[in-house]
Amino acid sequence: QQLAGSTYIATNVSVSISTPLNVQGGLLYGLGTVNGPVSNSAFVMPASPPGPLSVGTYVQNQAGVLNALLGGAAVGQYSQLTNPGSPALAGTLNVALTNGFIPSLGQTFYVVEGNYPVSGSFSAITGAHVADHIVLVPKMNYYNVALIAANDPSVANLQQAGRQATFSYLSTAG
Questions:
Q1: Is 123 helix (H, G, I), strand (E, B) or coil?
Q2: Please, what is the Cα angle at 148 between 84 and 157, to 5 degrees?
Q3: pLDDT at 127 over 80
Q4: Is the pLDDT of residue 84 over 90?
Q5: How far apart are the first and last CA of the chain?
Q6: Is the pLDDT of residue 79 over 90?
Q7: Residue 157: left if φ>0, alpha if ψ -120 to 50, beta else—which one?
Q8: Per-residue CA distances from 55 to 35, 52, 139 (Å)
Q9: Which of 11, 22, 27, 145 is the most buried (most CB within 10 A)?
């Protein structure tokens, strides 16, 4: 059980646990592997630099936050929670850009990638508006959670003449 502080799982390091790692405070982060169940009620970040953190089974409770860094479009350049057994999701997905990276329309980032079905969903996503007119749209698939860079559907060229209004907006890619 982790109540505070930080636990770092280094690259190419594998930690085996038989009882669930209950992250109730602080931060679990890194690019290694936790062979066993993880329950998150605090912060988990597959990063430093961005890349994959592998866990056995992942449960994110309502108080939990999964932090995802996007530093590029290729696997290994953005945060991924991989092989998460049957992930059960709730709480918040917090997205942040790093290394000056700005996603291009249509790029896809698999922030949760696994071999078993995903249940639940994030109740909030912060940081989804990543650039002027670009938003990351979540897409829940059977085995993963993806963020797709799309046009932010903001209204442009609003004009009003009497009781009639006309406007245009950018369509969403992906």
A1: coil
A2: 155
A3: yes
A4: no
A5: 40
A6: yes
A7: left
A8: 6, 10, 21
A9: 145
The yes-or-no verdict on residue 83 having pLDDT over 60 is yes
What's the token pair of residue 65? Answer: 């936050």
**Contact predicate 147/136, CB 8 Å:** yes
Of 64, 73, 2, the closest CA to residue 34 belongs to 2
CB of 89 closer than 8 Å to CB of 60: yes
Diameter of the chain measured on Cα atoms: 69
Tokens of 44: 């988990």
Q: What is the number of other CB atoms lying within 10 angstroms of the CB of residue 17?
A: 13
CA–CA gap between residue 40 and residue 128 (Å, rounded): 21
pTM over 0.85: yes
**Burial (CB count <10 Å: 0-12, 13-18, 19+), residue 129:** middle
Indicate the burial class of 115 (C-beta count within 10 angstroms; 0-12, 13-18, 19 or more).
Answer: exposed
Instruction: Please check whether residue 139 is in contact with residue 106, taking contact to mean a CB–CB distance below 8 angstroms.
Output: no
Query: In the chain, count of helices (H) and strands (E)?
Result: 0, 19
Tokens of 165: 């209004």
Q: For residue 153, list its beta bridge partners.
A: none
Dihedral sign computed on CA atoms, order 98, 103, 77, 64: positive
| pLDDT, position 161 | 79
